[in-house]
Amino acid sequence: MIYLDSAATTLRKPEAVYQGVLRTMRRCSGVGRGGHEAAMRAAEVVHACRVEAGRLFDAEPEQVVFTMNATHGLNIAIRSLCRPGMSVAISGYEHNAVTRPLYAMGARLMIAGRELFRPEHAIEQFKLALDRGAELVVCTCCSNVFGYILPVQEIGALCRKRNVPFILDASQAAGSLPVSLRNSGAAFIAMPGHKGLYGPQGTGILLCGSVGEPLLYGGTGGQSAQQQMPSVLPDRLEAGTHNVCGIGGLLEGLRYVRRRGVQRIRQKEQQLLTVLCRELSAMEKIQLFRGPEQSGVLSLRVKGRDCEEVAQVLAEQGVACRAGLHCAPLAHESAGTAPGGTVRLSVSDGNTEQEIRQFLRICKKIL
Q: Phi first, then psi: what are they for 105, rounded to 5°?
């Protein structure tokens, strides 16, 4: 199988990730649920993962909260900072993991920066939204549909200047683009473990520049006599038994990213994307959505063909990709690709140029 769907989940993990899950499953119990050897080993694994994430993302270990995925983290962040009726500025490329919680909270959305691959336009639009009274800003680092890298450093600076809280969705950035809690000034940064961090599904990280409000209430392994959730991180936001096995795998994924280097991973993805774009742009029926600054995500449409049909034909030829709206209808409204969406190709450090060239041969044959 030629796997080009890493924007959904990175299927090919470093071998150490599989071993980390298995080793932790066999040797570790619950964190804070005893002083015996299995519980202490679990605590060591979880703490080591916090330290590794902190090193990679410029955060203190206690600012690293483990979640089930980025959606879980974004819900904690949004429900901590958003109130019903609040004016919230978001980009025109947000995922449903951002828009649905805001809708549920009764926020008044201000859409800023709808023009694709126009970061300067996004800066102008966020500035305008803040001038018009936006009380909270939520923005993705990178579109999961088009790979469009948004100017989040500049947007964050605008928020700091006006003392407006800023939530960052790093789902498509963590592991392949620089992400820093310290430098961003964000109140929260959410990311999944199972994409660019090469961890297992069911893992995620919420970096906390603010303490936040719990989404779940329950046991934390300590302060059991009181009925309020602890006031300090990370316990305040981590009710219940940790996914220790998943965290054991995520630890190895984080170690891989740090050893390999975010810059080298990005360079590899860009090399593969360059080959894809050069060959696909020469195919008459294909419309590419390409920008000067782009992650390892590429969307396309085939003239006269339904996107879902194209993806199904590719699947029959052994190519894994995704078609449709990609859980981001706002992005398609902004880019003019609604209602049919796009075919999305997304690479990772685990792909090879040989795979890309084989995919291109398949495209020439069937398209």
A: -80, -5
pLDDT of residue 150: 98
Task: Give yes or no for a contact between 175 and 14, defined as CB atoms under 8 angstroms apart.
Answer: no
The predicted model gives 73-96 an average pLDDT of 98
Judged against a pLDDT cut of 80, whether residue 193 lies above it is answered with yes
- The CB density around residue 111, as the number of other CB atoms within 10 Å, is 17
What DSSP designation does 265 have?
H
Q: Is the pLDDT of residue 367 over 80?
A: no
Closest CA to 331 of 89, 93, 117, 119: 93
pLDDT value at 131 more than 90: yes
Task: Give the length of the chain.
Answer: 367
Alpha helices in 85-216 (DSSP H): 96-104, 119-131, 152-162, 181-184
Residue that is written with structure tokens 């891989």 in the block:
256
Question: Which domains does the chain possess?
Answer: 2-11+261-366 (3.90.1150.10), 15-260 (3.40.640.10)
User: pLDDT tens digits, residue range 266-299?
Assistant: 999 999 999 999 999 999 999 999 999 899 999 9
**What is the widest separation between alpha-carbon atoms in the chain?**
69
Going through the chain in order, the beta strands assigned E by DSSP cover: 2-3, 64-67, 87-91, 108-112, 136-140, 166-169, 188-192, 204-208, 286-289, 297-302, 319-320, 322-324, 342-346
Residues 219, 225, 228, 232: is their CA dihedral positive or negative? negative
Structure tokens at 235: 């316990």
